[in-house]
């Protein structure tokens, strides 16, 4: 019991240990709910719901009617759980920065590369996230929904996605970091 | 009932991401610089554990797989390429 408490209060686990936990969660999702883990789809469900309420005509298409029907889906609830799970994880290791001084940007590496301004990170985060969500829409899933959930069912799409993700990710990192790579 | 399961599983999902350190910008971007392999270790471990679990359970006839994500080569690859740019930029 003491050992367990000590492990839970650690800030960073071995990625292998955390990976095993996620693997078990992935199996349980299929076993208990016959669903796959995923994050990006839930945002599309929510966006579809808001869009249909405000501009119904613009959202009355194949994608939002058939591929990603709007509504409070299993994935949306999962996402709520992810939010609180992440918070619990940070709180147990006392690294939760809610209301702390450097809460909006505490990453020293980020500050070294892009500068100390918080607004820069918000702008980059906003437009980067648009890119992420759009790309996930094209590919049919994100890192969790396609790469991990698809990969564990040995779907070819997942491995194509991982290859593309790493290819362009390495290139982008090379461009950002240049001689500091 | 299904929603309760989703909430609990989601919490463990988020917890494992946090404990692996993947909620931090530097972990994600350092994977692409190959100075920190945590992302790959985490992803591949989860994949292997889930593969063994799922195919084992299916072999025993305890689960049927849900609809698998569709494969359409150009879309999957193009989406992946675009996704990588966003991932390396934001670190999410």
Structure, described:
Helices cover 70% and strands 0% of the residues of chain A. Chain A is mostly helical. In chain A, α3 packs across α5 and α8 (143-151) packs across α9. Chain A is globular. Chain A starts with a helix and ends with a helix. The relative contact order of chain A is 0.10. Chain B has 92 residues and is mainly alpha-helical. Chain B is 73% helix and 0% strand. Chain B contains four helices and no strands. Chain B has helices at 2-20, 25-32, 38-59, 73-90. The longest helix of chain B has 22 residues, at 38-59. Chain B starts with a helix and ends with a helix. In chain B, 51% of the residues are buried. At the A-B interface, α2, α5, α6, α7 and α8 of A face α1, α2, α3 and α4 of B.
H and E order of chain B: HHHH
Structure summary, number of beta strands of chain B? 0
Q: What count of helical segments of chain B does DSSP give?
A: 4
Order of helices and strands of chain A: HHHHHHHHH
- The low-confidence runs of chain A, each spanning 5 or more residues with pLDDT under 50, are none
Q: Biggest interface and which pair forms it?
A: A-B, 96 and 74 residues
Overall geometry of chain A: globular
Oligomer: heterodimer
Q: Distance between termini of chain A? A: 43 Å
Provide the structure class of chain A: mainly alpha
The residue ranges of chain B in which pLDDT falls below 50 over 5 or more consecutive positions are none
- SS-based structural class of chain B? mainly alpha
Helix share bin of chain B: over 70%
Beta-strand proportion of chain A: under 5%
Integer-rounded radius of gyration of chain A? 19 Å
Give me the number of helical elements of chain A. 9
The chain-level mean pLDDT of chain A equals: 86
């Amino acid at each position: 019991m003491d050992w367990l408490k000590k492990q839970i209060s650690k800030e960073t686990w071995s990625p292998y240990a955390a990976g095993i936990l996620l693997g078990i969660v992935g199996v349980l999702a299929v076993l208990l709910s016959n669903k796959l883990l995923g994050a990006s789809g839930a945002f599309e469900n929510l966006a579809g719901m808001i869009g249909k309420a405000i501009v119904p005509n613009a959202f009355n298409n194949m994608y939002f009617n058939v591929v990603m029907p709007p509504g409070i889906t299993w994935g949306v609830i999962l996402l709520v759980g992810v939010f609180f799970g992440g918070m619990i994880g940070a709180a147990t290791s006392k690294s939760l920065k809610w209301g702390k001084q450097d809460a909006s940007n505490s990453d020293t590496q980020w500050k070294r590369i892009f500068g100390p301004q918080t607004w820069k990170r918000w702008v980059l985060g906003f437009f980067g996230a648009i890119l992420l969500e759009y790309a996930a829409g094209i590919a049919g899933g994100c890192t969790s929904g396609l790469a991990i959930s698809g990969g564990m069912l040995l779907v070819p799409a997942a491995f194509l996605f991982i290859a593309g993700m790493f290819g362009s990710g390495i290139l982008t990192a090379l461009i950002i970091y240049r001689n500091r790579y | 009932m299904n929603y309760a399961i989703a909430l609990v599983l989601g919490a463990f999902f988020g917890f494992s991401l946090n404990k692996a350190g993947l909620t931090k910008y530097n972990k994600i971007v350092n994977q692409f610089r190959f100075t920190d392999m945590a992302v790959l270790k985490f992803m591949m471990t989860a994949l292997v554990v889930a593969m063994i679990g799922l195919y084992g359970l299916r072999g025993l006839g305890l689960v049927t797989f849900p609809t698998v994500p569709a494969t359409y080569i150009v879309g999957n690859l193009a989406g992946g390429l675009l996704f990588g740019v966003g991932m390396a930029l934001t670190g999410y």
